[in-house]
């Protein structure tokens, strides 16, 4: 028996036989072509692209029929956009004409250069877009070389799929009756395949590194999509244990579904507002379906990805307005562009920074590039008439910076007013507290901000000097560090004293024991992945705030992160007796809800 640990991508526990498939690759050699063959090569390429687009469209329509979250089918629009991107198509044609070489080689080489840019990016979501590029390229190359892509739409028996990777198209078209779950070597929680696995309710574990080498066809395996583990060749005791866990999970999901319309209210009557973090307008349906009381963080940067030019003001206004309208009367908090210029439009800004996390990103980038920032501000303002929109600025480090940013916003208001375009003149304007400097002057910032949102992901990494995507030091990324708890408490007290609202939108909001800590410290507004809301709501309805506050108030005074965790573990068994240790401290159903 051996246990492999990866990333929990879609919850569920499955016991079954493995079906291992291996990655397809194309061996493409360069070949010189004559002048009179150029047009023929380009015709072959145009046909392959056209056939690929049609295939993607059919997969999209099939996916919309199979899931109750049809908006996620818009993922496939990104694949079509890639095939329409001049960097992909026009550049391939140009090179065929100039270099006089076979189109499959030129196309493959062109895709390789684009992929290299994505693979070097620090942001996990952006790195995951590499898989979309590879999926599109394999599809087109398959047409050019007349090789059939592997099909997972018809299988003869029920299996747990084991493979190097799954493309969104393969995930969408897989035989749902016979594919019980899947596990992959690579991937992350923010990959499109993972997002779609959740929509299709297919348990999945990704990022197992070498699972295709560790598992053989027909091996008996247990896939735990809650904790992100795969057990190969389990013994009888292990099988019995996981049968019980599986039954508990199924019962828990059934009970959680009943909580959708119930309030997140403690036993002594205190209300906690639970909102959703989203990346795309299509995710609103999932947020509403899981009982979200608004959108606590709309990451606007995802409208800017996988394209060669920025989205237009009209396009942004429609996207933001659609979310506001669908979520009305609940509020929607839109974060302005939180990314570095090296990630945008093929890296056209040509930044080379030794430490991008400390460099020209987020509000710093926006202030340097009004041609990008100003249209976004106008778009958010225009959307504010379609619902309850709030605007929040990321990575603010000083009051001067906030004032400068607000002055630009005021100019955007004047521009719209001059054109007679309606907007909410009193739109609430907030600050993301995600740097130590902002936390330490939170009392000053609270005098001029309408609200705060603590982005714990960045606040923790900046405070502890820990790159959270660096595997060598990941163990030092400790949300329960007493210094972090003290800093969060400092911000909460400043918001209360300043009379402004405060939320937490980092991933600790969805971590059950840490959600307890946040509420105990005084947070009344949590924002997280939509799928995490029912479990957090269940937890909140299981304790008394009076009892919790007494426990949590002692935690910031403990000497180490381990002491905090141990104290919390002991307290939970008394405070929330209905929860099992496995459920509340598993901590792996959380999403990567960057904030």
What does it look like?
By secondary structure, the chain is of the alpha/beta class. The chain folds into four domains: 2-24 and 151-245, Glucose Oxidase, domain 1 (3-Layer(bba) Sandwich); 35-145, PtsI, HPr-binding domain (Enzyme I, Chain A, domain 2), CATH 1.10.274.10; 271-427, Phosphoenolpyruvate-binding domains (TIM Barrel, Alpha-Beta Barrel), CATH 3.20.20; 430-595, TIM Barrel. The protein contains 23 helices and 16 strands. It has helices spanning 38-66, 75-84, 90-99, 103-119, 124-145, 168-173, 192-200, 211-214, 236-257, 284-289, 313-327, 363-368, 370-383, 399-418, 436-440, 442-445, 456-464, 482-498, 512-521, 533-540, 545-552, 561-575, 581-585, and strands at 2-5, 7-10, 13-20, 159-163, 179-184, 204-206, 220-224, 229-232, 273-278, 295-299, 331-335, 388-393, 429-433, 451-454, 501-504, 525-528. The strands form two sheets. It has an eight-stranded mixed beta sheet. Helix 10 (284-289) links the parallel strand 9 (273-278) and strand 10 (295-299). Helix 2 packs across helix 5 (124-145), helix 4 (103-119) packs antiparallel against helix 5 and helix 11 packs parallel to helix 13.
Write a concise synopsis of the structure shown.
The protein is α/β, with parallel strands linked by helices and about 600 residues long. About 45% of the residues lie in helices and about 15% in strands. It folds into four domains: about 1-25 and about 150-245, Phosphohistidine domain (Glucose Oxidase, domain 1, 3-Layer(bba) Sandwich), CATH 3.50.30; about 35-145, PtsI, HPr-binding domain (Enzyme I, Chain A, domain 2, Orthogonal Bundle), CATH 1.10.274; about 270-425, TIM Barrel (Alpha-Beta Barrel), CATH 3.20.20.60; about 430-595, Phosphoenolpyruvate-binding domains (TIM Barrel).
